[in-house]
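Below is how a single chain appears once it has passed through the pipeline. First comes the sequence as given, then the structure the pipeline wrote out for it. We keep one example in the README because the format questions we get most often are answered faster by looking than by reading.
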Amino acid sequence: MSILFIRNSSIRSRLLISIGALFFGHAMAQTALEPAESVVLPDLSSPSNWNISGFGTLGAVHQSGVNGWGFVRNRSQRGAGSDSSLTPDSRLGAQLNWSSGPWEAGLQAVALSKPSGAAAAESVTYAYAGWRPLPDTRIRLGRTSPDIFLFADSRNVGYALPWARPPVDFYGFAPISSLDGVDLEQRWFGGAATWRARFTAGSMRTSVSDTDGSRLDMHGRNAWALGLSREEGGLLLKASYQHAQLYVDTNNQADQLRQALNAIGTIPVPGLASSLGALGNNLWTGGSTSYLALAAQYETGPWTFISEGSQLKVPNSPLGARRGYVSVGYRYGPVTYYGSASRVKPDDAAVAAPNLAGTLSPLIGLPAALQAQALAGFAAAAGDSYRFDQSTLSAGLRWDFRSNAALKLQVDRFDVRAHGAAGWRFSDGRAARGTLVSVLVDFVWGQ
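Resulting structure:
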């Protein structure tokens, strides 16, 4: 698939407007509390046709108690620039589908707040051609989503979610939601159960927002993902695994910082080289990554229970972490009341800068020692910018005031541990506790 990366801002703006005008949508044949397992499966009984539909969210957030930081829903977004903002959740999506017998194709674009300089092609979340050699077998080539979350196919479709947004402690770390390559899907049946397996392989690329809101380029190669689910009655169980070689382009800044730390480490002080080496390793710019996740959703009468847990492994980096959340919802008429609790806990403790000012002053003089201390402090802060360590308690309600629109109110009480604020813009090494209030309207149209 050939992708055109457009840098000119005016051309990029016109392209996004055109996409929004032409292709509104993500086919929404599901209920409000249903995950996207069925969203991308066309109705093979219908005649050959084009299908156009749309979705969007208008949302506002207000935060307090976070040291002037800005809330970031996902690391691929720019995030809030002030305590009150429309930026994190507001988005406009569009999808065009075509099917003819065993053949199908899809194009989806989502306009949302990206880091400045992000390519317009990053707004295209799906672009594929598919073939069904058998009714329950599908092969797609192009851009699709790796099947690693319960809401992998609908994380941008607010109307498909029971909450204001996917739990940030669980979903917010993953900036890459699309993969360019091949996608194979097989469904089969055992008794009353429906099984589904999806394998996706290829490459990926996206922009990542740094703590100051600037843009970094992240790309992956040799990526593959496998998702396996089983659904029977109101119970859906899912297991996912992904492996990839991921890299972040820091314009050689990380390499230069490592070289400077290594130079300081040559000073003959016991233990100095190892402590500075740990700081250097903490400046992660790429390598092997693996992700394992388990998920469950159970619906019984008006009640819905959802839970996901995962383990991210990234050797020699601050990224490795365990994540999980549980959620319960109760629907009464057009209103659903819900609550959730989530946690992300890093695998390793934060790497602190050693006391170079005191240790090196007798050897290289106080001015040089202070410069070395500042360098080590900057390296520690740079490593912290990748580190997630926080928990969140949430409560809210969803009012389906129309058949295709819902109003959501949500209050999050979050606890960010020291050196664990990677999910916040303008963050620093301090801990913070605060409240986030969200008001959103989600809508869909077309079918």
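The longest helix spans residues 366-384.

See the next section for the split statistics.
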